[in-house]
Design goal:
The chain is of the alpha/beta class and 367 residues long. The protein contains 16 helices and twelve strands. Bound molecules: S-adenosyl-L-homocysteine and iron/sulfur cluster. Iron/sulfur cluster (SF4) binds next to loops.
């Protein structure tokens, strides 16, 4: 589990080794934190972004149809999460620092906290934000308004690689992003981070360093996922090579497994990006040691515009959108969300969904 060992495990493409690693991570997960998987209803609030990350399909300079959910739409969506006993929501979107947007988030946080829990014994919805880099004051305002977790991926812990996949200007500074993570932690958020897996220029040593960073930063939750190219981004158009879809899936699952073995008691999300590579991608993430899933509950007409990468397959492959009869047997109960293709065979593995629970990481210690 040192840098060299992790890099060797990441570089090794032997399917039997990779399978054994995933099985062991799943076993350790059940043994350490139990069989529960927690749900976070994902609300993609807006695809308007002030930044220009070279890999991202909603970057500022890409020509796409922009949207922003109204307060009413966000509230209606949060109520769906509450009614379905998801326990928590994640509000994610492009990075914006204009006062109107900041005030809107504060207003929504307070309003979501007022939603009456759907069943006795349930807490008001837990709220994670994922809205990029903000000033410390803004993070504090949102924390005071009710957000208690924040997901800010470091994207890559190798500053050289970070700068290869971002424009070279002060809006895209590695040091600034790292500082934002420490701000979040000091304020008292459960500060989650993560990186993309299978990026151009990325080496097994880089990925090993990412894992060691999560441990050193003492992240109570990690959301990392495979890089998926978007056809119109500068990174894709540059022609820089990256691993095949098959390898990126295997790497994504292997990173989950290695992290579970490295820090057994944290929350690890099975990212949506896995689902693009395999219709059962997120389930495979769970069976590799992840314990959090984020069913997408963004209203459908807006969801299709949140194209960080090409997500068409997500729509096509969802069993519930193909077969309405399946809805009642879905693990997220009466699933009507086209991006959520969680199937029943998970239940066959005796995975227990932590309905109506926040599912905070046992690892988190208040500062
Ligand atoms: N704007 C915020 C949150 C939304 S983007 C932020 O950047 O933090 C959420 C995540 O999507 C990013 O952290 C990035 O890791 C991921 N992402 C963007 N483009 C991607 C791509 N092409 N493939 C895989 N993940 C991508
Ligand atoms: Fe904006 Fe986030 Fe995409 Fe970067 S990754 S362009 S900050 S939405």
């Amino acid at each position: 589990m040192d840098r060299e060992g992790l890099a060797a495990a990441i570089a090794c493409e032997d399917p039997a080794f990779e399978e054994a690693l995933r099985d062991e991570a799943y076993r350790v997960k059940v043994e350490t934190i139990g069989p529960e998987v927690y749900l976070r209803g994902l609300i993609e609030i807006s695809n308007i972004c002030a930044k220009n990350c070279l890999y991202c399909g909603i970057r500022r300079d890409i020509n796409c149809q922009r949207y922003e959910l109204s307060d009413e739409e966000v509230m209606a969506t949060a109520k769906v999460a509450s009614r379905r006993h998801f326990g928590s929501v994640v509000i994610q979107g492009g990075e914006r620092t204009d006062p109107a947007f900041i005030r809107k988030i504060t207003r929504l946080l307070k309003a979501i906290k007022e939603i009456e829990p759907a069943a006795e014994g349930e807490l008001p919805l837990g709220i994670t934000l994922s809205l990029g880099e903000q000033s410390r004051e803004v993070y504090e305002e949102w924390f005071d308004a009710g957000a208690h977790r924040y997901l800010l991926r470091i994207e890559s812990t190798n500053p050289d690689l970070y700068h290869k996949i971002h424009p070279n200007n002060s809006l895209h500074s590695y040091d600034r992003r790292l500082q934002a993570l420490y701000d979040l932690k000091e304020i008292g958020y459960q500060a989650g981070t993560g990186a993309m897996i299978g990026l151009p220029y990325q080496t097994p040593e880089d990925m090993a360093d990412d894992l060691l960073f999560y441990k050193e930063f003492d992240a109570p939750m990690v959301g990392m996922g495979p890089y998926n190219p978007h056809p119109e981004t500068p990174l894709t158009l540059s022609g820089a090579p990256y691993p095949s879809a098959e390898r990126r899936l295997a790497l994504g699952l292997k990173m989950i497994a290695l992290l579970r073995l490295l820090v057994p008691d944290i929350n690890i999300a099975a990212a949506t990006a896995l689902e693009v590579l395999d219709p059962r991608g997120r389930e495979k993430g769970i069976l590799s040691g992840a314990n959090v899933i984020m069913p997408n509950i963004t209203p459908e007409e807006q969801m299709v515009k949140y194209n960080l990468y090409d997500r068409k397959t997500l729509l096509r492959d969802c069993p519930s959108s193909v077969d309405p009869e399946k809805r009642d047997t879905h693990i997220c109960r009466n699933c009507v969300f086209p991006f959520c293709s969680l199937g029943d065979d998970l239940n066959g593995k005796k995975i227990v969904i932590g309905y109506g629970r926040w599912g905070d990481s046992k690892h988190f210690k208040k500062p």
